[in-house]
């Protein structure tokens, strides 16, 4: 794979660090009990590397996949998440919602229909099938109708519907203030309907990116994503904000995996990529400066 600007240098630094660590492990002294044959020199290093890999994997699993806060058997009313909070909500009908940071919903379950209004933010809907009671998700002047499926909805200045499983009908009205007629879109798994509030052109269905659904786990695989976009998403999860001393660096594209809800980890990853430092002297700010 051809290296992009900065990528080859990053790989060379990483390879050098790995080589130094492997060399240190290989020459580390090991106490040998009497009567026990000493293993060849490469085996202690391999064993140490294996143990460290298992420990690291366990820590990653504990940190990345810790359970969400949970609300059970919600049959109606409003619910909102704080900045940095991700919450799982189980409805009385068996459906499950995951609310992202800064998200607000209103739930109304009746004998005739199930309605959830997304007032702001982002949520994943895992809809329990019930042919007699349609499930409707409303956001602004738009709505999604589905008997039972899984999809994500983002509602703010940018509006996006990403279907993960099943099928869903999306009724869109008012992508711009002068739009008088509504349009009905049928989404299939892996498809996304996205548009900006007030945009002039009618929205269109497109293929979703694999990273679009990673917000639930929090681990984002970044593949040539502008640094400004990464900072904006990380900042949405924290009252501490990442700031670029030189805003022009925001157009640089970054790659790798990072836990997007860990503001310090994101700042450190960006600083390492830019070969910059983090100024922590200003309360509530992590200023990345060259």
Index terms:
2 domains; 14-stranded mixed beta sheet; 290 residues; 4 helices; alpha+beta; three-stranded mixed beta sheet; Phage tail protein beta-alpha-beta fold; Jelly Rolls; 19 strands; globular; single chain
CATH class of the largest domain: Mainly Beta
* Helix-strand makeup class: alpha+beta
Beta-strand percentage?
A: 35-45%
**What is the quaternary state of this protein?**
single chain
Order of SSEs:
HHEEEEEEEEEEEEEEEHEEHEE
Tally of helical segments: 4
Mean pLDDT level:
81
> What fraction, in percent, of the residue positions are helical?
10-25%
Morphology: globular
Distance between the termini: 28 Å
For the sheet with most strands, the description reads: 14 strands, mixed
Structure described in brief:
By secondary structure, the protein is an alpha+beta fold. The chain has four helices and 19 strands.
Textual characterization of the structure:
The structure is a single chain. The chain has 290 residues and is α+β, with helices and mostly antiparallel strands. The protein has two domains: 69-212, Jelly Rolls (Sandwich), CATH 2.60.120; 218-289, Phage tail protein beta-alpha-beta fold (3-Layer(bab) Sandwich), CATH 3.55.50. The chain is 22% helix and 38% strand. It is built from four helices and 19 strands. It has helices at 7-27, 42-64, 227-235, 263-274, and strands spanning 69-74, 76-80, 87-91, 96-99, 104-109, 114-126, 135-139, 142-146, 150-155, 158-165, 168-172, 183-187, 191-196, 204-207, 219-226, 241-244, 253-259, 277-279, 285-289. The strands form three sheets. Strands 1, 2, 3, 4, 5, 6, 7, 8, 9, 10, 11, 12, 13 and 14 form a 14-stranded mixed β-sheet that branches. Strand 3 (87-91) and strand 4 (96-99) form a beta hairpin. It starts with 6 loop residues before the first helix and ends with a strand. Residues 13-42 and 48-66 have low confidence and may be disordered.
């Amino acid at each position: 794979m051809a290296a992009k600007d900065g990528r080859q240098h990053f790989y060379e630094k990483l390879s050098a660090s790995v080589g130094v660590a492997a060399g240190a492990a290989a020459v580390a002294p090991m106490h040998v009990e009497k009567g026990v044959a000493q293993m060849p020199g490469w085996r202690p290093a391999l064993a140490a590397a294996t143990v460290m890999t298992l420990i690291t994997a366990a820590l990653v699993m504990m940190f990345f996949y810790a359970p969400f806060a949970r609300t059970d058997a919600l049959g109606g009313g409003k619910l909102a998440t704080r900045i940095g909070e991700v919450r799982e909500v189980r409805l009385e009908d068996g459906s499950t919602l995951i609310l992202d940071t800064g998200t607000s919903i209103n739930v109304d379950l009746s004998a005739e229909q199930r309605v959830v209004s997304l007032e702001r933010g982002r949520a994943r809907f895992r809809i329990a099938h019930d042919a007699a009671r349609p499930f409707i998700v409303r956001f602004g002047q738009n709505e999604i109708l589905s008997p039972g499926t899984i999809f994500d909805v983002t509602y703010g200045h940018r509006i996006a519907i990403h279907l993960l499983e099943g099928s869903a009908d999306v009724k869109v009205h008012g992508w711009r203030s002068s739009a008088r007629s509504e349009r009905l879109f049928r989404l299939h798994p892996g498809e996304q309907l996205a548009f900006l509030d007030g945009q002039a052109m009618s929205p269109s269905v497109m293929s979703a990116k694999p990273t679009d659904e990673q917000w639930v786990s929090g681990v984002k695989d970044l593949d040539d994503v502008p640094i400004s976009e990464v900072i904006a998403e990380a900042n949405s999860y924290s009252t501490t904000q990442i700031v670029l001393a030189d805003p022009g660096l925001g157009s640089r594209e970054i790659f790798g995996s990072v836990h997007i809800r860990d503001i310090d980890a994101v700042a450190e990853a960006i600083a390492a990529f830019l070969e910059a430092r983090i100024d922590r002297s200003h309360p509530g700010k992590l200023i990345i400066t060259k």
